[in-house]
Amino acid sequence: MFLQQLINGIVIGSVYALTAMGATLVYGIMRILDINNAGAYALGAYVGLLTYNATGSLLLTFIVGMLLTGLYGVLVQKLLYVPMLDKSPNVSLIASIGLFIFLSDLIRMVAGPSIKGFHAEVPFSSIYTESLNINGAWILIIVTTFLLLAVLWFLLNKTKIGLAWKATAQDLETAKAMGVNVNMMVALNYLLGYGFAAAAGIMVGILYSSVFPTMGDVPAYKMLAIIVLGGLGSPVGTVIAAMVIGLAETLIGGYIGFFLPRDAIAFVVLIIILLFRPQGLISKN
Amino acid sequence: MYEIVVAINVGIFVVLAMSINIITGYAGQPTLGHAAFFGIGAYTSAVLSGAFGLSFWVSFPLAGIIAGLVGMMLGLASLRVQEDFLAITTIGINFVVVAIFQYVPLFGASLGLSVPRPTFFGQDFGNVHFLVLVVGLILFTYFVNRRLENSWLGMALGGIRNNEMAAAALGIDVNKFKIIAFILGTFLAGLAGSVYAHFMGFIMSNDFAFLTSVTILSMAVIGGLGTIRGPIFGALLLGLAPEVFRFVSDYRMLVYGGLLVLMMRFQSQGLVGDDSYLWNMITRKKSWFSASTKG
Amino acid sequence: MKKIIFVGLLILVFAFAVFGCGAKQEPADNGGEQQSQTGEQQQSKEPVKIGFFAPLTGPAAADGESVQNAAELAVEQINDAGGINGQLVELVDYDDGLDSKQAVNIAQKLTTKDNVVATVSGSYSGPTRAVAPIFQRAKIPMISAYALHPEITKAGDFIFRQSFVGTVQGKAGAYVAVEMLGAKKIAILHIDNDFGSTLAQSFEAYAEAKGAEVVSIDSFSFGEKEFTPVLTKIKEEGADLVYMPAYAGEGAQIVRQAKDLGLEAQLLGTEGVDSTTQFLEVAADTADGLVITTNLNRDSDREVVQKFLTDYSDFSGHAPDMVAASTYDAFMVLASVMKEYGTEPAQILEGLSKVKNFEAVTGVLHGYNELGEVTKAVQVQEVKNGKFHSYGQIDDPEIITPPNK
């Protein structure tokens, strides 16, 4: 049973990692907390559902979902977040909350409040052994997350763009002075970040075969706990924190039972860790 | 009476908005979990009056004190974490507190708690009594804010908000003041919670969830953080809006979300905050009157 | 000084806006008494107002939309059939956003400004529980369509409940589990709010009294989707039945993931998952074999049921669920009572307490007891080929009689 729970925890952690990655990337460059990342998650799921129903292709679903949502991110940063950079970070935080509320309700008005089924054919078949049940969707999640994170890692560490990104994250003004096209960095940031959130939303939609307007509510705050736990702005930290939380929730649910609501666990873990390491698991430097 | 009940509900949130202003407006500490203290006050009062049979007039101040004590712990914790972490930690506290209310039998767990009516010289409270109580609480909160603004405490806090390092360089004990702000703000929220619990007669953990915290902060921010008129205005606006705009109630969340975004983007100092368009018009800094008097 | 004037002006402006928009013509504090004195002539022209509130925005918006449709359909049908002895029914409806504070404001408005003679609550337990005392004090009957909290009806004799109280459904579930399905080792997996807790408690008590063993009790929060960890644990425990009080969103996941894990235990659900659009559509063929206790029998040969199923589908574009059926019934009971006893709140109260064997969509209502709880048979349905079908019915008075204190 332990192996089953472990794999389950990794799957959950993977979804969390992708969802939270956008918020980490944004914080890395702009030092603001963007709750609207969860709105991208829900938007991506719906765009994905529409695409899948229209084309039946899983590949197209991901591409279109990530692309369109990513473009939404580019729009949002240009019109909203960048102009507010000179104000206190609280301002951006509240604006992102407002945008998230707006987007979630817009989805409700356009698509209706009820849960919609998302029945997709997954290209991986499930593995059933005596002691293990691995859903095909789980395999999809692990594979896709691994691929996307690998692409991100490559981008950040092995390309010139990655170098420019790190420079901007280190010190925006200096990077600008050194000739880095900061505007493009930010736009790219959002394209990737919201795109990842969209991918996570699509995969969750497929895994549970359901999309609904309020599906971004839980990720909105849970992902904040995860990025803080990981050490704000560190992609590696985010992945580790996501796995920790995913495993914690799964193991507690599977062995002890939830003595507190599942969503509170992420925060309990966060508070406990912060007591010993106020900078989070991985500090930025 | 309908008007009185609406006034009571709005009034409670006026107090809440003014109380969060002390922490986030004057002391600049972002707190996204204020509803937790609202809830701590409510549940404390409910349990003391209900399970322990104490009079409302005893559980009311105790509710504030207990909320203030927990707030003090949050204040102490805030010293260890940097600002961005603090916002999220406060969310976490909100969740944990609500979770405790939901799961612990003393607090009624998922069934919530019934709260007894307060009595005044033997007579059960009517809605009018509650209104008087709320107005009294608003005035009390107003005076606390006023005193804060005008005192050295207020100037110190304002200094902290604007530039923490400069304030420290001037010899202001930044930490002490941050903690005082937390204590005051949460104490007031606890009092508001007690009134709320006894007025509603029944409380559930959901009443104090993260969304409520966002509402409280929005009220202060939309009105104008760092001023007294701001939170009052914001609470009135957001509190009365569902009643006034019932005919567009389906679009309510769209309008609310949109308002937050537009406000932050274009008037982040709040609708009637310092140097806002509206406030400047009212105080005649930017108006057409002065132009016409010139001839 | 300027600031005080400003704030004062502000308050005045808002006060005008709110109360100017909200006020209706007649002063309402004396409500019922005055109306009956103004004579029958006025009554036959004025519409009869029934209040209604539901969570149209917020996390319960799907249920809100469902019951809103049911309320509008009911009122339309009542009026098409001639109204209440010639008087038309007017639906005075509000959105409470699943927020108790708003529900309180709404209840105050309904009882003091809108001149409603009765109200139906289409909302969850929190708001309903908060407003029950307001209607009781105003002496205006309120029927809770589907909110389960036991304290609601205890607010007073003007408060009624259309759906089973938790203890009845929990007992019925235990009966189904032990007597009809022959379960010996049962695992309970319930939602952690009042709906789930009350059902789980009464189920456990009755099941153990009947000799079954409850091997574990686990809970989850509203909106939970990931059940594989706990289902894996239940599989290890070797339970032969899992009792799952949950709403459609979670229920669909429990059913899917149980199937996926190869969990062989029988799944037993409740009216919470009684929804074609939100449950069956999501769970698809993994729901086959699920048995639930509910109050809507889709195979019923009673005309009122079949007509409702068709009418609701035509009206709203999709099949009805349990909350819609309960709401519809609440209105129909009110209409019937008003036709026979009159449209004054006191008359409606008298009529409701005398209801006997009313043919409702959700069953034949034997009546409401002193507490206001309804007595009717519990329907047991089974999912076969992706649809709900009749599995049985429980009329044993020992089970279906609700508590009267």
What does this structure look like?
The complex is a heterotrimer of chains A (285), B (295) and C (405). With 285 residues, chain A is mainly alpha-helical. Helix content of chain A is 75%, strand content 3%. Chain A has a single domain (2-276), classed as ABC transporter involved in vitamin B12 uptake, BtuC. In chain A, the strands form two sheets. Chain A has a two-stranded antiparallel sheet with strand order 1-4. In chain A, strands 2-3 form a two-stranded antiparallel ribbon. The radius of gyration of chain A is 18 Å and the shape is globular. Chain B has a single domain, classed as ABC transporter involved in vitamin B12 uptake, BtuC. A two-stranded antiparallel sheet of chain B has the order 1-4. The longest helix of chain B is centred in the middle third of the chain and has 27 residues, at 174-200. The radius of gyration of chain B is 20 Å and the shape is globular. Chain C is α/β, with parallel strands linked by helices. Chain C has two domains: 47-164 and 304-372, Response regulator (Rossmann fold); 166-294 and 379-400, Rossmann fold (3-Layer(aba) Sandwich), CATH 3.40.50.2300. In chain C, 47% of the residues lie in helices and 19% in strands. Chain C is built from 15 helices and 16 strands. Chain C has helices at 2-22, 31-37, 40-45, 61-80, 100-112, 125-138, 166-180, 194-209, 228-237, 248-261, 276-283, 303-316, 322-341, 345-353, 397-400, and strands at residues 48-54, 89-95, 118-121, 142-144, 159-161, 185-191, 213-220, 241-243, 266-269, 291-294, 358-360, 363-365, 367-368, 374-375, 378-384, 387-394. In chain C, the strands form four sheets. Chain C has a seven-stranded mixed beta sheet, sandwiched between helices. In chain C, strands 2-1-3-4-5 form a five-stranded parallel beta sheet, sandwiched between helices. Chain C starts with a helix and ends in a 5-residue tail after the last helix. Chains in contact: A-B, A-C, B-C. Chain A binds chain B through residues 27, 31, 33, 80, 83-84, 87-95, 97-106, 109, 221, 224-225, 228, 232, 259-261, 263-264, 267-268, 270-271, 274, 278, 280, and chain B through 24, 30, 32, 80-85, 87-89, 91-93, 95-96, 98-100, 102-103, 210, 214, 217-218, 221, 250-251, 253-254, 256-261, 263-265, 268.
